[in-house]
Amino acid sequence: MTTVDQLRVSGQITPQEETSVLGFLKFANDANGAFGVCAQQAHNAGSKAGAYTACAATFQTTLSNPTELALIHVNNAQAQATIQTVVAGVNTGITAVITVLGGK
User: Fold this and answer.
1) Is this prediction's pTM over 0.85?
2) Taking the chain, what is the end-to-end CA distance rounded to the nearest angstrom?
3) 55: domain range?
4) Which tens digits make up the pLDDT trace of 33-57?
5) How far is CA 83 from CA 48, 54, 70, 97, 102, in A?
6) Residue 89: predicted pLDDT
């Protein structure tokens, strides 16, 4: 959120764009919370095959929602690149988790 605020303060994004990006980040944070609940439920259920991977895949699918992704579009190309880098990093992290889980 600090990065988004810095983009606004530096004039690279408008206050309205900042609000939209922060909305996406809240959505992502809420999805992360749902992932945590899912993983805990999988653990409590005895970690059936594929349960953790399904949780992570659902998290990744949720974050790839086109409607939500539209919130992070800003007009400044440099700011857009910064925001896309953050989102891509999160997606790469989730992909790594899914890979490491290997179907668990």
Assistant:
1) no
2) 32
3) 17-101
4) 999 999 999 889 887 778 999 999 9
5) 36, 27, 12, 22, 29
6) 92
